Amino acid sequence: MLAAWACVLLLRMASASQVPWRLSDHNNDWSVELSTDWNVLGPFPIHAREQHYLSPSFPLNLSEPVDYTASWPSSYADGGKVLWSSAVSTLDGSLQVSFPDIRWKSLRDTEGWAVLQHHAVLRTTLTIYPPKSASQNTLSPSDNPKLLIHLFQGSYFAVLPTDAHMKSPRWYTGDVYAMERALPHVVQLPTTPSLVNPTTYEIFVSGDYEIRLFGDPHVHGSDVPVQNIKLTVDVENTSLPVVREPSQDVVCNFVDGQAFGSAVGIGLKSTAGWWTVESVEVAPESAGYFNLELVRNIRIAPTQTRTVPLRISQFKSFYNSQLKFKLTLVSKTPIVFDIALDITQSPQWSDSSFPTIQGTYFYATSMPTAFLAIPPKYENHGAPKPPILALHGAGVDIIGQSFWADSFSRQNHSWIVLPSGRTSWGLDWHGLSAADAWESLDALIGILNDNSAFGSWSLPLNSAVIVMGHSNGGQGAWYLASRYPDRVLAVAPAAAYIKSQSYVPLIMSRSARYMDPALSAILESSLTPDNNDLFVSNLVDMPVFAIHGGNDENVPVWHSRELISILQTWNPNASAIFQEDPGKLHWYPTVLNNERVQAFLNGVIESVSSEQPKVRSPSFTLTVAIPAESGSLHGWRIESLDIPGRIARLVVHTMDDGKVFVTSSNVKAFHVDLSIFPVSSLWVDNTRVHLPHKLDDMLYMKTVEPRVWKISDDPNQLQSSGRMQTILSSKTPLALVIPDESHSQELSIALRIAHDLHLYHRLDCAIIQSSEVFTSGTLDGGNVVVVGNGAATHLRNSFEIRNPPPEQPLDIPGIGILFLHPHPTNSDAKMLLLQSTDSVGLERAARLFPVRTGVPLPDWVIIGPDSDRVGAAGVVSAGVWSSSWTWNEPMSWMY
Ligand SMILES: *[C@@H]1O[C@H](CO)[C@@H](O)[C@H](O)[C@H]1NC(C)=O
Ligand SMILES: *[C@@H]1O[C@H](CO)[C@@H](O)[C@H](O)[C@H]1NC(C)=O
Ligand SMILES: *[C@@H]1O[C@H](CO)[C@@H](O)[C@H](O)[C@H]1NC(C)=O
Ligand SMILES: *[C@@H]1O[C@H](CO)[C@@H](O)[C@H](O)[C@H]1NC(C)=O
Known about the structure:
The protein is an alpha+beta fold. Helix content is about 15%, strand content about 30%. The radius of gyration is 28 Å and the shape is globular. The two termini are about 20 Å apart.
């Protein structure tokens, strides 16, 4: 079935990898100049993140000549049409894009924030100048300069030749969030520049105003939204084949000579060639103090940047200001880096003074990751007091700024852990960012328990926590508390929004004007796991203290009021306190640091210390969307769903005589931990369950048909799919698999994905060829992304690729296909295949690789060329797999 499209040959370009390294300095004499004159076309209504489905050049078709005199329909403009306009950037590439002729106020009066979302396409030129000394004889094609291009606060850019139209431009993602410690893309020119004359290229940019990112223009006293875009272009210096990228280093603090963590990371970029890290050697003068060991094989693809993971183990206290060691890499020849990494030494904290400590750990077994911890004033007296997990707001860089750590008062007995969430935006504390929060806490516990110097400050494994957060972090606090209710003792969310679609409504959707609402429903089911409102049922027995400024200009105060109202609707007895601070804006220094919050924390800590039994309502409802990304409530955990893509619920009702009645909705398997929730007699869906005489702690139940239950002898498989983004939750670096040969486009896509995952989530990727899958240990590890039909063909020789999506549309050019697939050997991991009917379709599939929150992508999507004009309405087929990875009729849609 798959073969019909798998054998369609991809349009291939000459392989440009494996450039042999040779020392050349004349590359450095290439120069580049970006024009300051821009053409601008817009604004066009879209909803948030819709640009990932549309063509980034919408409404232009770059396969055809661009008509700069044409007008285009846009419902934002007077008369319903927009024309090209011009704009001028500053010399540093900063460009302000706005459309002051649009009557924004009038639009906004009826449509609110949703109407500020808009798309524009921007165009300028860049000119490359060859080295003065060069001539045709002294330069070879491998000397073609590569460009370092960084687009701040734009969605995509592409570089095109001026004289030819590109069937399939390679779009690179912008750094739309203006992320901390961001690196530019390394961009290959689409055609060889002249070696004797200047060559001019066009550069197109997708400029998309996102109110969540760029804010409300009212804050600046204006009605007109302004995109502040910046584009910088440089020629890459290739005089060294591998260079350090110190901004990507990760290192822990030392406290009284003790490393506060085990992870050290060294940022390295290959400018040319494939480089493998061979060894690490501690400098002789430090060898008696600590050792460093390479955590995994690291190979760096040409132009890729990776953070090399080194595990530090210490023999004695170390008080120097630098860690010194040698790192050896090999390609054809070795290259040695002498590294001296600055470290921060702090004295042991005391009751009167303390540092905010930067600890480190290995996220997903090998990604060096930093977090912050604020130690308590007093060491443990008796049982340790619960720690506090504090989730920062969007755009807050906890490492580079002290703002977030300064927002808390040090506690008497509780540690405060400030995780990064991977980056300042991450996945809004969902998915991998939630995992990072839990793993940061576990890392702190490990550091305290493993080091005798910190023994009197230790915490038990799997400590339950109090979660706090502000803004996006407030939203994240609702998320963690409602998805992991048994691990959260209490929650104090400040200035939280409910979910992205409530923050900025999707009413200006372009796609929706063309789409079968049944398809919308399937696509939007991939946002269900993010919809905090639907999971509030899980919080009825948790102390909640929500805080919100009464005049919040960023997250309107009604969001917290609504969440509290939902909670009280589920159970009027819920312990929900809402503190609305009249007149306060989004941020004020006392928002989480005040007497009422402290009294709430003290109350929770007191009730834990006095071992008061946990509150448990006689009746409660557990709501789950993706079982692998949800914990238990009072010991009850849903393990798989009847119809993934829909929510599942268990209503647990305890009678006065101790009988327990459970009603299920869309649940296929669940368990209950009887040590947390003792059960003597149980009914599920009105049928008595005959409990064995000798009960283990865990009672596993599964259906034989809907709502007909039996006890399972073994744990049921946890369902981990439900949306494409779950591919990011990997136990190890993602393996990006490309074909062995003729893989220019696939390698380019893999490098772009690796860049984006590093930029947006500090996720590490290994790029491997398909024949290496079986020798590189890839299949023992985490998730795998297969880029292109060529790579899949090779794998298919070795294991069956099951469940390809339906083949109907596959004779159409320009089709992109993305589907999750079970991992061939590891049931904890999964694969995502990016396939297509041609190279245009592969670019289209690659643009949908799930990097950002809010892009609706269920388990599988087939996307056609119409998406260029009508966004997600160009989906020809999409769906969610069943819990056993088979066809799921109610959650599938075909054109
Ligand atoms: C390129 O890098 C080399 C080695 O780091 C350095 O010596 C040289 O000055 C750089 N050239 C330019 C143009 O930056
Ligand atoms: C873009 O133009 C090419 C060449 O004219 C055409 O084949 C293609 O269908 C157009 N694409 C769209 C989405 O209109
Ligand atoms: C911390 O402990 C001190 C000394 O026992 C006490 O006076 C103070 O009230 C405590 N602070 C809090 C916030 O409980
Ligand atoms: C609320 O508490 C009252 C008094 O304890 C109890 O009778 C009632 O069942 C509770 N309601 C719910 C929904 O749990």
